[in-house]
């Protein structure tokens, strides 16, 4: 097993597109590390460079102690799983699993042992004698995962491996991957544009935007204190409310008059924006003490919670409330902040300042 170090990685494609700009990542041995970001942010390019499928323009990649810049994929001792299953259609599951081992010239008895172990881990026993066309999408993807497992690589690289599965199977396979990684303790780099997947899987998450790393942190760190306005707007569903704020009399206030808990040491010599999660706000009956007035614009009942959009202070504010609350559309209401100190950003640099 091995950690992965990416240093000053830069990738410019022949047509001039800069896909990755000076990316530094330090992925621990045994870590499940997620790269998250919108389409086109450079996740796949970074992962393919780690795998050796794409040559970086500059920068270094170490897997364990080995500088792998000049090593072909087969010599990097990694296994990759893609969004598309890429199984050999004419081979039964057991032969699909054995294929990479046979290619290495491994003795038959050892191949059998490894195939059986991987089949047990991915619960493929009943499927070993079927060809891919007799497997469901989810089963095919489990075979693809098992085929990565049999090689016992130093690291797994996964590029959106669950994209083609339906919601239920996605959640189920996600749990399996997480469990498997914990059991094996093998370093895994997992690329996704799905924040729920990232939050539920990652020990740490790197958020990428336009070829650069905006933040690296645990799921809670990136949720509680997004490092930039981009991260603040990207993480969370619905995302944070971003309010322009002013500091006056030791208070942090939005232009709509909503009082927020001010972070200590906040400088007031620049325009500021505070990020307030929908669950850090409360909708109350109109006129409640300590609230600002608003009007319910929409009510989205999600079963275990309700998302209210409230027009207040000349803008729409999203609020997450328990399902027991009953405010109707168009109702006059009050709005107040109930959460802790919000993260505050410099609106010109877009970076976290407090
Ligand atoms: P997605 O989630 O859509 O797969 P991504 O974050 O993985 O996106 P990349 O596939 O790494 O992003 O692409 C990063 C940028 O590089 C994009 O602007 C993309 O259009 C560009 N790009 C990718 N491959 C090539 C290529 N072979 N030639 C030119 N530009 C490319």
UniProtKB/TrEMBL annotation:
Residues 4-235 form the ABC transporter domain. One of its GO terms (molecular function) is ATP binding. It comes from the Bacteria. CDD domains: ABC_MalK_N. This is ABC transporter ATP-binding protein. Pfam families: ABC_tran, TOBE_2. SMART domains: AAA. Residues 334-354 are annotated as: Disordered. PANTHER family: MALTODEXTRIN IMPORT ATP-BINDING PROTEIN MSMX, TREHALOSE IMPORT ATP-BINDING PROTEIN SUGC. InterPro entries: AAA+_ATPase, ABC_transporter-like_ATP-bd, ABC_transporter-like_CS, ABC_transpr_MalK-like, ABC_transpr_MalK/UgpC-like, Mo/tungstate-bd_C_term_dom, NA-bd_OB-fold, P-loop_NTPase.
